[in-house]
Amino acid sequence: MKKILKIAAAQLSPVFLNKEKTLEKACHAIEEAGNKGIDLIVFPEAYISGYPDWVWLIPNSKGAELNDLYAELVENAVSIPDESTEKLCKAAKTAKINVVIGLHERNSETSNASLFNSLLFISDEGAILGKHRKLIPTGGERLIWSQGDGSTLRSYDTKAGKVAGLICWENFMPLARNAIYESGTQILAAPTWDKSENWLQTMQHVAREGGLFVVSTCMAIKIDDIPDVYEFKKLYPEGREWINTGNSVIIAPNGKILAGPMEAEEGILTAEIDFQDIIKAKRIFDSVGHYSRPDVFNFRVKPSTKE
Predict the structure, then answer these.
(1) Gap between the Cα atoms of 92 and 76, Å rounded
(2) Confidence of residue 4 (pLDDT cuts 50, 70, 90)
(3) Which end of the chain is less enclosed by CB atoms within 10 A, N or C?
(4) What DSSP letter does each residue of the chain carry, written as one string?
């Protein structure tokens, strides 16, 4: 593992509800990042194939419209593994880069008709390392995504260090964070839909609390990125240009911003990192080291909800 690494946040818009074209865009970004010598790239939450923002716009009484949108979302979701993940793995191997990418994942182990908000972890050798399913969707998202369990709360060994992920507001969950810290995480991928100033402050706190690097990646997407065939597009305020401006950021273990926030544009945000900064940050405060007090606190993760 190199001492100095380059990591990146891919603040990109998907091709809305089009899995194949979004995959093409993702693979192109992976290739571009590899050519720049980047060791790890993190894509936004639900990048394949787009965040279902209609959950905040369409009332649940509009069942027929919601059914049609959900059916299309499932059609453009991913199973792990499938042909879509094969394309991503091939791109990662060719570019020699580690990839964390947000996607809608089918529950292929059972009905194949429910969805998880998931992160897929791919090594620079093109192997699937694992996945993380979001523990609890927020607000209207609960009408779309199932709940993950404790089996995916872990980090993965890569040539870019120990990498883990928490999605959007599950980063607010103290016990979920502690599980990630205890797994020895050095880089936390934090794909999100939240672009707010409060969110950026939370990400700085998490970096300091965990003594790790944080890559907060949010998609930048315009109204014009939603095809006109979708009626919910008319529910946005007249004259609005951006649905989400992104504000992706990369943060050091001392809480200082290394790159970003990138606002109202697409692009690949990059930063150089040095793992010695983790050691330096943990000299005074190590939340799962000398500050953990196992004689006072008992912490355990249940791998399954059935346990």
Answers:
(1) 21
(2) confident
(3) C
(4) --SEEEEEEEE----TT-HHHHHHHHHHHHHHHHHTT-SEEEPPTTTBT---GGGGTS-TT-HHHHHHHHHHHHHT-B-SSSHHHHHHHHHHHHHT-EEEEEEEEE-TTTTS-SEEEEEEEE-TTS-EEEEEE-S---GGGGGTB----GGG--EEEETTEEEEE--GGGGG-HHHHHHHHHTT-SEEE--BS--SHHHHHHHHHHHHHHTSEEEE-B--EEGGGS-TT-GGGGGSPTT--EEE-EEEEEE-TTS-EEEEEEESS-EEEEEEEETHHHHHHTTT--TTTTT--TTT------SSTT-
- What is the pairing mode between strands 213-216 and 221-222? unpaired
Helix H or strand E segment including 33: helix 19-35
Number of domains in the chain: 1
196-224: average pLDDT: 96
Query: Taking all residues of the chain, what is their mean pLDDT, rounded to a whole number?
Result: 95
Which CATH number belongs to the domain containing residue 252 in this structure? Answer: 3.60.110.10
- DSSP-based three-state secondary structure for 168: helix
d(CA 138, CA 49): 19
Q: Which residues are catalytic?
A: 45, 134, 168
pLDDT tens digit sequence for 73-109: 999 999 999 999 999 999 999 999 999 999 999 999 9
Residue 152 lies in domain: 4-281
User: Model-level pTM?
Assistant: 0.95
Helices first, then strands: H and E counts in the chain? 6, 14
- Would residue 302 count as lying in a domain? no
Residue 109 within a domain: yes
